[in-house]
Each structure stands twice: as structure tokens, then as C-alpha cells.
Amino acid sequence: MTTAAIAVVHGMYEAFARGDLAVVLASLDPLVEWNEAEGFIYDRGAPLVGPDQVRTAIFERLRADWEWFSVSPREVLDAGDTVVAHGYYAGKLRRNGHTVRAQFAHFFTFNDGRIVRFQQYTDTAQFALAVAVRS
Question: Which domains does the chain have, with CATH numbers?
């Protein structure tokens, strides 16, 4: 399963880069628990549950808030039933032109070939500063 799980994660990053959100969301279990880093600009203090909440609370907001936003994994690692990826986010905020380049770590937990849990870690201070800057 690990090789397949790593392929799923690589496929998600590639689909995100193409703007193919349907492929990204199709990899998620119907009851996926999605956790943004504590203090992140899209963290609501509780996990998102299900692909619809993830789409609305994360991906639609990224599309609306950022002129461009990229997720560039540097390495994707096998950790049993979990795949760990680390790399960089980069983006330019629409409302003020502020840019970010922040490291991330993503933990994807799989069950029966689908992602059942996601945990993000990133430099939340960079994002907080970006949204606080006035144009």
C-alpha cells in the first residue's frame, strides 16, 4: 500500500498545481479529518470533516485570497500507514501583494487507499504577517 499511497500524494500535489481540485478531493475519504496548523490563517480551531468542508474552508479560500499559490514538495516519505511530505508554500496575496515562502510538513494517514487524516505544519507567522499587511 505504501507505494500506492506515495503515488496518491504525488498525484494530489500535481493536480493542485494544475488547478484540478476534483482529483485532490477524490483522494480523500468521505469522513477525512483535515487539520490545519494551529494558528494558521485558515485554522478554525477544529478539524474539517469531509471533502466538502476541505474544499470550502481551504481550497476555495486559497483560490479567492491568493493571486497565485504553489505547494512544492521537496520529499515524500513512507511512514507505514502515513505518508510525510515536506517542502515549500509560496504565494502572493491578492489584497495587498504580500508574498510568502514558507516551509511545510504534511502528514497523510491512509486507510484502504484513501486519506483519512491530514495534518499540516507550517510557518504560521509568515501567513499572519501577510494578511496583516495593509496595501
Answer: 2-132 (3.10.450.50)
Conformational region of residue 71, where left means phi above 0, alpha means psi within -120 to 50, and beta covers everything else: beta
What is the tens place of the pLDDT at every residue in 17-43?
999 999 999 999 999 999 999 999 999
pLDDT tens sequence across 68-80: 999 999 999 999 8
Q: Quote the CA–CA distance of 93 and 62 in Å, as a whole number.
A: 9
- CA-nearest of 135, 115, 117, 133 to 125 is 133
Collect all residues with Cβ–Cβ distance below 8 Å to 18 and sequence separation of at least 6: none
3-class DSSP assignment, residue 42: coil
**Beta-bridge partners for 87:** 73, 104
Give this prediction's pTM: 0.94
